[in-house]
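We now fix the convention by which a protein and its fold are recorded. The integers have meaning only within a learned vocabulary of local backbone shapes. A complete example follows; check for yourself that the lines match position by position.
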Amino acid sequence: MDRLAKLTLISLLITYFIGGLELTIAGSLNQLIADSLNSNSFAGTILSSYLIGGVIGSFFFGFLADKYGRKKTLEIGLLIFVLSSIIITLSQNIFEVILLLAIQGFAINGDGVAGSSLIVEVAPSKLRGKMFVILSTIWFLGDMVASFLGLYLLSVLPPYLSWRISFAIAGVIVVPFSLVRFMLKESTVWENFGKRKIKLESVRNLLISLVIISSIDSIVTYVFPFLILPDFIGPALGLNATKSAEFTDEAILAATLASILGGFTLVQILIDRLSRKSSVLLGHIYMLLGFLIMVIGLSSSAFIIGDFALISFLSPLGLFAISLLSVESFPSSLRAKANGIVSGISSIVSSISPLVYYYYLSGIGVRNLVLSLVGLISIAVITILFTKIQDNRNIEITQVEKYYQTVES
């Protein structure tokens, strides 16, 4: 791995870590933030603002990175995030928090879109999948650190101060890495091929398939841990609100640990040994079987936690492979835009799906709620089977550019 690839990986590691950290802070401390600012009714809006900002950032930075380059876009994203992290700690009302969280989501998601394009273009072909898995797994590490950080700060600081310190810590962590970010060089792949005019219609079918699969993944990964577990399975087990929250925290922590363990071991090994299509298929079939097995043990909290952890160990193989395909399968002139479209649409779906489940599907029962996820994953598997996916594991990214050059001519 050359110096540019190493610097890029180091620079992007913090982006993915902070992404997981910020999302968990916004989601887990939203009620606390609203209460401390005497705006109880705005608790739900706090997380939504971050997600909405992320959607806009995915689309906007995708366009920006393809038009003006990866390096400039990453520098802009970093500056926006650092400034918003400083200002949010000084917020005096809920509207400032909502606006600044939207800006943070905008910067983090946009940074991820531009960054994933750069890492694919500078990584050696044999390490491309591995480096992508490392970055994606770091997101889960950010989730876990945010959970422990929140618990610790709440135990030693008054509530109104704990969330401000959480955001301040995120901003401080980024500062040393900002120096690395400005040392990066522009992607030579983008410099050589990024100005070519390639029509989006030439990649339309693949793009639609990736949007469908990624959107289903977003529904499953948001709805199950953040809605079905606390609001339906917990009460069905006879747990009160407090006990149900504790049960959900235990399940999410077990799943997060399993995802980190799997991401740094088996998933990292398989991502470059299996074809991209096989990786996506294996990860999703494994997830499907895991939720089918869960239906058998819905009367046991220990069984559910254990099964959720097992699902989370290997299913990231499919999730990460889809994210990787959303970047490496496209030419550099469309790469960030295509990734932004997949990321943006799946983010929209993930923000809407909890509302659909809560208001329209809550009466179908816990068993059928879990089976609905099985049905959705089955649709993803069928989509994978009928999608033509080129295996780009061991070829240089410039070969992808030449392939599209041939197609266009």
Summary: The mean pLDDT is 86. The domain at 3-193 is CATH 1.20.1250.20 (Growth Hormone; Chain: A;). The chain has two domains: 3-193, 200-408.
